Structures
1.
Amino acid sequence: MEEELLTGGSSKGVISQAWTRVSQWYQSLVDKTVPWQKSRWLAAVLLILVFLARVLLAQGWYIVTYALGIYHLNLFIAFLTPKIDPAMDFDAEDNGPELPTRANEEFRPFIRRLPEFKFWYSVTKSTLIGLVCTFFECFNIPVFWPILVMYFITLFCITMKRQIRHMIKYRYLPFTHSKPKYQGHEETAAKVSSK
């Protein structure tokens, strides 16, 4: 009986070690893709096009496509939204947002609720899951697809309108490329002395 416990425990240890190795290999593979932003997104767009081609050629799985579109829309909204919502971050003195709103205030980079890498990773993973679902007939639920398309377009417009209003109200842009460069006191003094 002790031998059975020992062999059972060792097989669990072997499986656990193998799973740990596979997960470490997978994580190192994913980590290697971090610097290749354009290539990652190109691969994700190609994967989405393969998914759409599969749905169009098979003439089915519209509900899977709709669910995938809603999920991607939620990811995109999280990508455009700041990590700390300015609507909830009020200063006690003037009841306004603490984020800098003028050019002479301190630079604070836009920090996203959903970082770019996690956005790409979630889009890629969900598209792969959706593609796998298109190979199972149980997910091919018959629906009138034009209604789903119209509902998605309506939902997209309402959601983006709300997001754009939020961006205008709190004066932030989710697409900044680098920190602005200011002239230092030394540079200003050098220009004045050279004149």
Note: Residues 56-176 form one domain.
2.
Amino acid sequence: MDLTLYLQFFLGLVAIVNPIGLLPVFVTLTSHQSEVERRRTAAIANFAVVVILLVTLIAGQLILDMFSISLSAFRVAGGTLIVFIAMSMLQGKLGEVKHNKAEDREAAAMESVAVVPLALPLMAGPGAISSVIVYAAEYNSWVNILGMAAAVLVFGLMSWAIFRMASVIFKVLGQTGINIITRIMGLLMLSIGIEVISAGIKGLFPGV
């Protein structure tokens, strides 16, 4: 078991999903809910995220094979998407790559926001899914898959705890503090995206 790999995978999820950066959105989407309903929404959203990422982790290689996509090509595509989201985060924004105004309006009118748009596409968005598929395809032994699945479960518990304390954290950090954390996560995410693109280019053009 490569603990370094699982730690890298876990930290990548933390940077890409950025649950602390999503706190203002979570508070806004659940503003009409009671404290009990808000906690239930947080639990359902994070459970849905774990399920989505686990399914992606297990079926990642199958998805690539189904569409005859090489891992190198997917690395370039996924890495590019991660870079776009990271650039948006560096500006202190979630970015239209994760959600747009039409989705915001739809969410405001919805009774439950736990699965859509909170879990998908805000948390388990294209960036997170792309990252999981890349890791699953590259480190596809059952030992590594189980290790990364454990990392997903730990991430889900951590994210749930953060959302459960959303009101307190939001009051302590404020919008400025959350923006600072979002920019730091964006910088880490940008580095991850560049590394993924670099590995993809080397795979497509071995002579480079």
Note: DSSP finds nine helices and no strands in the chain.
3.
Amino acid sequence: MSTWFVAGASRGLGLELVKQLLTRGDNVAATTRSASRLDEALGSVAHERLLPLELDLTDEGAVTGAVTAAEKRFDGIDVVVNNAGYGFLGAVEETAHVEVRRMFQVQVFGTWNVLRAALPSMRANGRGHIIKVSSVLGLTAFPGWALYCSAKYALEGLSDALAGEVAGFGIKVNVIEPGYTRTDFLKPPALALPENQVAGYEAIREMTEAHLAMPGSQLGDPVKVAAAIIEVVDSGQAPLHQLLGSDSFSLAQTPVQALTGDIEAGRKLAFSTDIPSPES
């Protein structure tokens, strides 16, 4: 039996993960904006090993209190899953300051709050596992997804650095990068749109309509995705970056190839900026 702290648990992938963990007998501390909504969503799933934590992840004090409550209730935390987040589809020009700030407060600052609260005990115990649910859009980017991608790219960098920082303490880190998964992610409020649209971005309007019509047709099975996350933790053998979904796997190839091409194409200019060594 392990104890999991799951941030963002009342819908979608987080909810499915909580259900599977409770069903198999793990302890779960689950954060949500609405404990009643989480309770209703769990339905007949046994709740005796569940600690629902109603809080705003951007409130550092509240997050610290929630982590402390989970550690006290279950005598420590083995796995932290940062899953909270939402999508945003709109052009850079039409994305308001308040929309940018909110995205980073939830996706980046909220994650940082959880990590700062959970890591001290993990370090002291010499073990632990951090799972960050990112997206294939943390590896590649498309027009209209700039705000969402920028937050996911930030989390990818955070996770890469964190993995190196905590490996010596016996703490593992994995970044999960799913493709399109059949959850409510592409439905409001999980998908936000700019309050003030700018004329001229017809292609992004078309993309928005296509994504709003997509629910129910995504390739990814949330049950299998949640099970895969559990497997990543149980096996301890997954790569730092774990893609999930054939679409995610395919989409990730393009930026790798493009970056490799850019590096090679810029080789001559890159080397031209070095200060010559005395021997040359």
Note: The chain is about 50% helix and 15% strand.
4.
Amino acid sequence: MRGIMISVGAPLIAEFHMVLYLFGFFLIWTGVQMWRQHGQESTSFSDSFAVRLVKKFLRVSPDYHGNKLFTRDAIGILARPMLVVVMVIAMTDVMFALDSIPAIFAVTQEPYLVLAANVFALLGLRSLYFVLGGMLTKFAYLHHTLAFMLCFIGIKMLLIDTPFAIATSVSLGVILTSLAIGIGASIWKQRQLEKVAS
């Protein structure tokens, strides 16, 4: 899926430079949404778009039946919760790709490099997911840092052909600095909370 997005996106950028600006606006919008949603009560699993999509077109059984995606009953085909799980995972990957692929195109438009970066990212994605899951509870400002980075990369894409274009070395410095500040501020806040608790 990511390969298809890259193979379609690279020629589009080469042919229609305006696509980069669309990517930039999309990253800024994603960053703003991420910043605004932090601290809000998260939507329950059953209310997610993937679950509602499956339930709209199929009858879903409330019970698992091993690893089966479908079974039959007296009425006809019945989807099992395992199908819903698979759909949620697939749609989550699409959402990751929609953020990560435009962000990589901000650094390079070489399809091979974009694909290689995605392959290496996916190799460590499962372990990184659990690392970030643990870090989000410990580092209070990591969410805001990631939102800022998405907005910054979006702005970099919008300025790509202007006199104010941001060099890759500068953007790397901004990203590393924002990560350091976000983690440092989170550690400081955690220590302050521990002092208050003790």
Note: The radius of gyration is 21 Å.
